[in-house]
Structure formats: C-alpha cells, structure tokens
Amino acid sequence: MNAVREMKKALPGVRIVADMKTVDTGAMEVEMAAKAGADIVAILASSDNATIEDAMRAARKYGVEIMLDLLTVPDPVKRSRELEALGVDYICVHVGIDQQMTGRDTIDFLRDIVKEVATPVAAAGGIDALTGAEAVASGAAIVIVGGSIVRSADVTGSARKIREAIDHAQSQGGAKVSREEEMIAIFREVSSSNISDAMHRKGAMKGILPINLGSKIVGRAVTVQTFAGDWAKPVEAIDLAGPGDVLVIYNGSNFIAPWGGLATLSCKIKGIEGAVIDGAVRDVDEIRAMNYPIFSSGITPNAGDPKGMGEINSEITCAGQAVRPGDYIVGDESGVVVIPKERAYEIARRAKEVEKTESRLYEEIRRGSTLSQVAKLKKWEKV
User: Fold this and answer.
1) What b/e string do you get for 173-209 counting C-beta neighbours within 10 Å, with b at 16 or more?
2) Under CATH, which architecture does the 2-167 domain have?
3) How far apart are CA 127 and CA 110, in angstroms?
C-alpha cells in the first residue's frame, strides 16, 4: 500500500492499478487499496463468487473499479462469461510466467475471450512490443507489460518501443513459426550458462571445451557409444545424421583419438551441426582451418583403429551426463549442456528469462553498483 501511496503522490492525475492478487477477504483488500489511492483493484478470477461480489460492493462504496485476473483459471472463456454476468469492470487475460514457459499464449486466449464478452479486456503475460501490438489488434483495451520493461538494460527505450507499437497496432497475421523453430532460435540467442541456470545448474558436461573458439552448436543428439580410439561407429554415425543433428560420442580416452580432420570434413559437407566427443581429437590445425564446431575433452596426435565396437543412437553417458537420441545439445565457449527433449521448449523459454535478468544486472553494474549489491547477497544469504 505504501507503493500505491507513493505512486499516487508522484503521478497526480494518473490512474493507479493495485494488482492485489486477492483471493479472499475481497472487500477488506479493496477498501485498503482504495484508501491508499488506487483507482483500479485487481483480484483473482479463481476467487469464490462471494469474494468477488463483496469486493464489488466495496469498490462501489469507495469509487474504484474492479479487474478480475484469469491467472491459472482452468477454463478462461467460461469464467469470463461468468465474470461479465457478475458485472466486473475489467477482465484480465493473464498467462503466468510458468505457463508461458510451456507454450501457453496470452494472445490465443485473448482472441477467444473478446468474442464472448463486451467487458473491456486486458492482456498480460509475456507481452513485448510485438505481442503488445498483436494484443491491441486482437481486441485488448489494456496492455499490461512487466519483464520486457523492468528487466531491460534500457528501461526507458523498451517502454517507448512498446508504447509506440501499441499506439500503431496492426495484426502481424500470417503463419506462426513452429514451436521447434522458436525453441531453436532461442537456443541460438542464449548462452550455455543461461541454459544451465534455467536447469537449476544442471546439464553441463564435464571437461568438454570447444576446439574452435567462437563456434556454437544447437541441435538434436545422435549418440555414439564407442571405446578408446575405435573410430568406426563415430564415422558410421555421420552417414545417419544430417542438418540439425549433433553427434555426441563417448570414446573413453584422451590419449587415442576417434576423430580427426577427415571426419570433420565429412560432417561439414553433410551439414551436420557439430560434434561433441568425450575423448580426444586430432588434426586440430585442420579442424580450426575449417572453422567447424567440434567440442572435446582432449587433444592428441594418436589415432585409433576402426574395430566397429559400440552402438549408435542408444542412451549413453557422455562427460558425466546421460544423453538420449533426440535430446537437445547446446555448446559454446563456456562448454556444452544437455537438455532433455521433453522439456526443451520450456527450458529455452526459461533460459531467455535468465538472459533478460542478467542483461539488467549488467546495466546496474555498469552504472556503479557491485555484484553483491545487485544480487542483494547480505539480504538473502543464509544466516
């Protein structure tokens, strides 16, 4: 409530929304917000109707309006019709952060709901300049933006860009990119460190580093289990792989190489994304001249022999990580992470959120704060 009071004082004449996330004692919380200076009070649409009706009585008494937030409501369209029948002032179509990570989309829900109700509809959840314009073009009366502004390194610039986009809103139309395409694009934007953070510091291979600095790989794993220096299965796997694939090879020795310049050239010509080898590579000068992304745990001049031991496309353990065929692999100068295929889209979205947060922290440090200050270590460390 102090935040509402301070905003009211600083912004006379500007309408203030108190996003209370109220789910009980509706009248009491509406009164509290109204007396602090709020003009609109948001409560959760999952609240019992009795809570909503009592909140509305208080709203009429204190001269404020009520917004109902559809966050986590199982059937948003049906609930919107019910809320309109109750006489609420605004309905907020809100897909929460964790829901966004799994691919739920605010704009899709918005389009369905505006067809069903005449009540002004707000759009919230993952809104940026592009989706903000799409929301207005799709019928939103209000656009609510959070992370795209507050986690930007340029808060004012981001806010201005979104403001201009919604003021000149036009539907983008056309076909959406597939979820796979969106996910791959995000993995190319974020770092392996961002992804590890998104996975709660998991997924990183041990001791695997790039042969070519500056190279990056993003793709689906084609797994190879072989043994010290046996290069038959790794080379045979090249014939099975193609664009968008990453060869992930367990070799078991940093002193006998199952991989060299000729295998690298074969991969490059086939358009394979790259190779990750728990073991040694050789012909490093040739590999670097090709500027092809190879990641390994060691370098040696010693070649092995093609004995044909091992398997292709079975689950393996590579550099301490379980890797299944089709899991996603992202490698850059910091190393390589393995992303379970069933959670890949969610992890990509979460990694993007990590990147946004770090961008903001970098800007705070550039402006003179220290890392311990922006991370609030003294506040949050265990005692």
Assistant:
1) eeeeeeeeeebbebbeebbbbbbbbbbeeebbbeebb
2) Alpha-Beta Barrel (3.20)
3) 12
Q: Thinking of the domain 185-345, which architecture would CATH place it in?
A: 3-Layer(bba) Sandwich (3.50)
Q: Could you tell me the residue ranges of all domains in the chain?
A: 2-167, 185-345
Q: Are 204 and 335 in contact (CB under 8 A)?
A: yes
Q: Which amino acid is at 269?
A: I
For the chain, 383 residues long, give each residue's pLDDT as a single digit of tens: 999 999 999 998 999 999 999 999 999 999 999 999 999 999 999 999 999 999 999 999 999 999 999 998 999 999 999 999 999 999 999 988 888 788 778 888 899 999 999 999 999 988 889 889 999 999 999 999 988 888 888 889 999 999 999 898 765 555 567 889 999 999 999 999 999 999 999 999 999 999 999 999 999 999 999 999 999 999 999 999 999 999 999 998 999 999 999 999 999 999 999 999 999 999 999 999 999 999 999 999 999 999 999 999 999 999 999 999 999 999 999 999 999 999 999 999 999 999 988 988 998 999 999 999 988 888 887 76
3-class secondary-structure state, position 142: strand
Q: 3-class secondary structure for 272-318? A: ECEEEEEEEECCHHHHHHHCCCEEEEEECCCECCCCCCCEECCCEEE
Q: Which pair of tokens denotes residue 120?
A: 């002004």
Residue type for 148, please? Answer: S
Residues forming a β-bridge with 339: 328
Give the pair of three-digit tokens for residue 45.
């649409």
Provide the pairing of β-strand 328-332 with 335-339.
antiparallel
In this structure, what DSSP letter does residue 341 have?
G
**pTM above the 0.85 mark?**
no
Burial of residue 358 (CB within 10 Å: 0-12, 13-18, 19+) is middle
Per-residue b or e along 298-320, where b marks 16 or more CB atoms closer than 10 Å to that residue's CB:
bebeebbebeeebebbeebebbe
